[in-house]
Amino acid sequence: MVPAVVLGLSLLTLGSWADPAVVVPQDPTLVIGSSLTATCTVSPELALRAEDLFWTLNGRRLPWEVSKVLNSTTLAVMLTNLNGSKQQSGDNLVCHGRDGRILAGSCLYVGLAPEKPNNITCWSRNMKDLTCTWAPGSEGETYLHTNYTLKYKLRWYGRDNKCLEYHTIGPYSCHISKDLALFTPYEIWVEASNRLGSTISDTITLDILDVVTTDPPSDTHVTRVGDLEDQLIVRWNSPPALKDFLFQAKYQIRYRVEDSAEWKVVDDVGNQTSCRLAGLKPGTIYFVQVRCNPFGIYGSRKAGIWSDWSNPTAASTPRSERVTGVCDPKSGEQNSTLRRELKQFFGWVKKHAFGCSNLSIKLYDQWRVWLQKSHKTRNQVLPGYKS
Q: Which molecular function GO terms apply here (predicted)?
């Protein structure tokens, strides 16, 4: 059964009148769905009767039907099935005189006890710090101000430590900026508390080396591949903060055309610091980004955590200069067959060279440049030529 709160005034409370009126109870904390009876008693020195008073809740006047005159100077209000507080600082229940003057008030805190925090996730940027996030429970909203405290300690020894820098990347996050140990597991948990209770999350155990992420790759730039109309080459440097550490890395590239929000991702980059993109549109501006995933740091067997993407870098493929709609008067079936066979060959090479495989395509580049130049020559309309 939902509890009801009914409190009146004692003779001791009325013994001294420092205010024009007194509201009881003062600042109660209630569970959602509770009922409450509060009273407002005016000072005998005021020429006011209980019938002259009225109540407001968060500035909205309550109907007289929920009020009850207890005696000549005391007016009660009955609130049932209370909803969660509209503001974490409490709902304002105020007693007014007949002219609207505020005589006294109380804050109502109506909400829920915190649920057990879950889904604790942590990462270390360049092994220099630790950032953790968590979820506040299945419901999350308690309607009351709820304190979250992230605590941590070395697994086998050491004292409990409190994280101090909260809300660094969101409402449920904390950042530990220094004094972290490597090669020793940490135990990490979150405590939640408010006016209605407290709870503790499950404890997770992690090693800093297993949750490392890096800064994005630096000095990313994109250039053309000679006169090839459908290719760009991307180059970048490894994250500088980890250059002195023993680790492996794998990279990922994504790119999109200027007028599109859809990214295409190249996954097979491996640990190279360059990659050739093929099959692009001629005369098109592309935006390119790179990110890094460190793994195997000092022998760690855990997968790394992807860095943020680097800042977008833009480049354009060469514009096609081919003349369309002009027929080669000397073309024959033999030449058509040759072109078809070459097209199939180039398609095979492009398929096996797409992405960032280690296949050498120097010969392919030479053939492509030769084909483009010869194609332009064959389709060029010579001065004085008339169809």
A: cytokine binding; cytokine receptor activity
